[in-house]
Amino acid sequence: xxxFGLTWALPMEVLLQSSAIxxxxxxxxxxxxxHTSAASLGSMCWLQVPKRxxxxxxxxxxxxxxxxxLQQLSFGDHFNQPIAEVVLPASLQQLSFGxxFNQLIAxVAWPASLQxxSFEDRFNQLIAxVVWPASLQQLSFGNQLNQTIAEVVLPxYLQHLSFGDQFNQPIAEFEWPTSLQQLSFGDQFNQPIAQVVWPASLQQLSFGDQFNQPITEVVWSxxxxxxxxxxxFNQPIAxxxxxxxxxxxxxxxxFNQPIAGVEWLASLQQQQLSFGxxFDQPIAxVAWPASLxxxxxxxxxFNQPIAEVEWPxxxxxLSFGRGFNKPIAGVVLPASLQQLxxxxHFNQPIAEVEWPVSLQQLSFEDQFDQPIAEVEWPxxLQQLSFGNxFDQPIAxxVWPASLQxLTFGVDFEQPLAGVIWSASLRxxxxxxxxLLRP
Length: 438
Hints:
ten-stranded parallel sheet; 438 residues
């Protein structure tokens, strides 16, 4: 047992003969060391704010003499002892069980003051008959729990509930606490949710990697602000009736569904929208969220025309992944854009591109090798980088007066004689070596 210095690895009476107890003193903590009896340990409550206790070993605790005012109690990763007969202190507010704990809890008499309970990895016991304390506000289960919750009665005032990776039980008929605000499911959860009656109080909802169920007919909570879908989610979202309160929406790595018909809500405060590995859908008719600052297209698949796209006026960063290789000469980029990145396969002419005046960072990756002599660079460009295959003449180029960093790749072998570097340039590299003369 640790109480910021107390380690319980011996029998109770032996341990308490040479214990170290940390107690609060004003706004600071001080250590009290010496001979402590079981009786005196139970009565220690000097300032009514005891410290947290941590059990790091696997020893029975049914007869433990808890300090009368203990508020936080944690059992370490090795603890796996029955607790049904343990009399926990009435003052306890937070209780956590470590990695190995996997004992029955149906008959546990929880303290009425308990607000937080958490179970770690190994816990996988029936919870249908558990009588949770009415004061409980946060409840979290570890990775192994996969028990039915159909008959579970959760406390009315529970606000946060999380299930671990193995949980995959039906929830369609489950009655959620009316005060629940945050609900999260782990990686294996993949149950239908169309018939779920979400609590009106719910604000945050997240699904793990395996979740891939239809959501078109889902009736979301009227107060829902954040929805997050995991890795494999790939369901249509164009006809989903999102709640008017929604502020943030996250889709998974495998998502590849049309978004042209999605009606982004006026309430959406989505500053970043990213599409994963497989996304490759037309975006010409997409009406983007007005609040969008960052737009990131998938690492590999995305390769759609963008000439007719109407970008959000607030966009600051635009990034295309490895697969993108479409013309950009006629693209009207937003005036607010500050950072623009093109991926591995991009190799299109840029001489006629009208860059936003506000653009500060521009990056081309490996395959880009187009003439740049006639390019009119944006006036405020500060960083410009070319990939490994770029090898075009630069002798006649007028670099922007604001340019500070310029990078060339491993194949760049053009002569530098006659090149007029911008006075603002601080770093010019080719193969990681400076090209600026000392």
